[in-house]
Amino acid sequence: MAHSSSCSKQTYILAGDIGGTNSRFALHRQGQRDPILVHIYSNETELETAPTYHHATLKPFLEKCLDEVDEWKALGQKELLSNVQVVACLATAGAVTMHNDVFMVNLGVRGGSIDGNEIEQCQDGLIALVVRCKLVNDFVGQGYGVLDLDLDTEVVELLPGSRARMNDLAPICCVGAGTGLGECFLTKSSLATNLGYECYPSEGGHADFAPRGPLEVELLDYLKVKFSCDHRISVERVVSGRGLANVYEFLAQKFPERVDERVHQEFLTAGDQQGRVVGVNSDSEGSLAQQAVQIMCAAYGAEVGNAALKFIPLGGMFVTGGLTPKNIGTIQGEDSPFMKAYLDKGRLTGLIASIPLFAVMNEDVGLRGARVCAEREYSAISSSSSSGNGIAAAAASSASYFCLVSSSNWNSGG
């Protein structure tokens, strides 16, 4: 490592939520939930001329902090570099390796890499402030972000009495549909509950899609042809923004007489925003767009129920992701497509009904989870520094539970 941590330096926390389209950053004073500064960068625009990801976005954000954060402005760059350190965590939409790097296939135009170790070693301008840069899977960020939620104002109980039933020693589960479908779970050690929850990633969104009626059987067959899969399709092909587009496309070819030409032409020219077009037009009663949202939300509820069966998250099942608040009308309520499918678990419906279930109405959960992860990294650094082991030991001790080994064929097939 190029840096050595000093207890005399003032520490700031930098959280990043790195998607394919945008990078969202927040600067915090260490130990404080509320950010000092938040800014969003367009990856495609910023990556056009920069040599690395961190030069494209992280460096400009730190420079923006110097320009706009009063205590940084008062110090100036020279004194800032001498008296301040930054501990960062970036939640990335990709498979983070054990080496603290990630290749994001949807970063910019051609995909791109982010290397946490390279950021730590970089001495170019204000990037030198960063003494630790931990990369985590984006849904690990979502999972830790759930721990930061205000249950009074930022969630909706999907089952009455959910909050009162929460068991603070039991597992927590998080399932969220956005561009894709993410899933993760959190547990406490029964031997050391004071250490709190650890979050673990999964790829549950790529489990098999199971049709629940004749029309969904036809949908499955349609998607198997579309994606050249003989035997199965991932549930993400239905439950996600892209999945919503797939469902509408299927309905449009099955029921051509019901196609609204205005909506359909907008859909055909929307590129990667096709799901948004369907969602925006879903209020039209009896429309294909409305039916597509209902099918997607029913499949969403079924998959959340499947995850609840597997993890029995009596600490809470949290439904996150951008599609949740956007479709809360089709998710909330005992007669909604989502809740009917969630509770339709045969002999174990009683168990499913006992699990605390929440819809998360805030879309910055990943960014907040990155802050939680960065605070944990700071604690590890502080503990290692006090014992004389330094940042490298802290990095090694915190590496394994955040990582998801990468696969070169992550997005191929069903």
Give short descriptive properties of this protein.
414 residues, alpha/beta, six-stranded mixed beta sheet, five-stranded mixed beta sheet, 17 helices, 13 strands, 41% helix, 19% strand, globular
List low-pLDDT spans.
396-412
**Annotation field: number of helices:** 17
Q: Proportion of β residues?
A: 15-25%
| Secondary structure category | alpha/beta
Strand order of the largest sheet: 8-13-12-9-10-11
| Mean pLDDT figure | 90
Radius of gyration over C-alpha positions, nearest whole angstrom? 22 Å
Helix coverage percent: 40-55%
Head-to-tail CA distance between termini:
41 Å
Q: What is the ordering of alpha helices and beta strands?
A: EEEHHHEEEHEHEHEEEHHHHHEHHHHEHH
Gist of the model:
With about 425 residues, the chain is an alpha/beta fold.
